[in-house]
Amino acid sequence: MFHHCKSSKICRQAAANFRLRPKTRRAMTLLELMLAVTVMLMVLGALGGLTRTVEQGFEYSEGYGAAVQYARVILDRIARNLAQATANEQFPGCLVIPDYVNSHRLPDTLVIWRPQGSPASPTGLPRYCELVIYCPLPSAPNRFVELTVPNDARTVPPVDDEAQWRAELSAIKSAGDAKVVVLTDLLRTVSLSTGNNAQSRGAVRFEVQLRPSAADWAAYQSGAVTWMNMPWVQGIYGSQTGMRQVWLRSELQLVPASPGRTSNSSTLPAVPFLGSATLYYQLNHP
């Protein structure tokens, strides 16, 4: 009897432990599941952020590559046209016509004398139909364009008549008969205030340096400087001719394109591209 009771007590204790054990195991499984889900969410969040960073880097690299290609084509096109330009004492092959907005000087328009055949007046001024014009498009300043007016046979103004040049070029840019070639639509734009209004302008800049300069040539013609004392480029001159250098420097600021971004926003990071081109021609001793 004693042994029977003892065995019964042991059996009852074992049964109680057996009934309690599954509940304890279920509680531990739920806790472990919650911890596992939390860790998985943390890992997925980290991977999602890393994936988006990699995706953004790829998009920027792809857009940057496109911007580099556009800039290379544009600068090579300008350099090739300048190298084949016509120049003489009245027109030095190319000309930069700046615009002015309040106190801002905007040298964003380049004119190159590049006739398709022989120039109409090799020793005089070019015709408008012989010009190639590079500038941002006024109606869409994020577009950098090449303009030609093949049907305009008028003679251009003198080089020093900047106001007339500005008026004529403004008319050409807005004329419907001008031939327009869009070279890129990735040009960075900036907003400039004009009184109570603001206008958007393309971020492009041209500068031309002559050697001997126009002032040097005028000083020689007035007798203030002798022929041999002119600042000839690399000292190359003779008794009847001297070499003149036209040095063009260009700067374009392009915005790398990517999905969901517009290229005409001044808040986007822009990449500057610099170009340089030269033209050499002879000045004749009078």
Helix content: 25-40%
| Beta strand % | 25-35%
Work out the radius of gyration: 37 Å
How far apart are the first and last residues' alpha carbons, in Å? 145 Å
If you average the pLDDT, what whole number results? 84
Can you give keywords for this protein?
286 residues; alpha+beta; 3-stranded antiparallel sheet; 3 helices
How would you characterize the overall build of this protein?
- With 286 residues, this protein is an alpha+beta fold.
- It has one domain (64-284).
- Helices cover 36% and strands 29% of the residues.
- The chain has 3 helices and 12 strands, in the order H-E-E-E-E-E-E-H-E-E-E-E-H-E-E.
- The chain has helices spanning 2-83, 162-174, 214-221; strands spanning 94-96, 99-101, 104-106, 110-113, 131-137, 140-148, 179-184, 189-194, 197-202, 204-211, 241-254, 271-284.
- The strands form 4 sheets. Strands 1-4-5-6-7 form a 5-stranded antiparallel sheet, with helices on one face. It has a 3-stranded antiparallel sheet with strand order 10-11-12, covered by helices on one side. Strands 2-3 form a two-stranded antiparallel sheet.
- A hairpin with a 2-residue loop joins strand 5 and strand 6.
- The longest helix has 82 residues, at 2-83.
- It is elongated.
- The N and C termini lie far apart (145 Å).
- Residues 262-266 have low confidence and may be disordered.
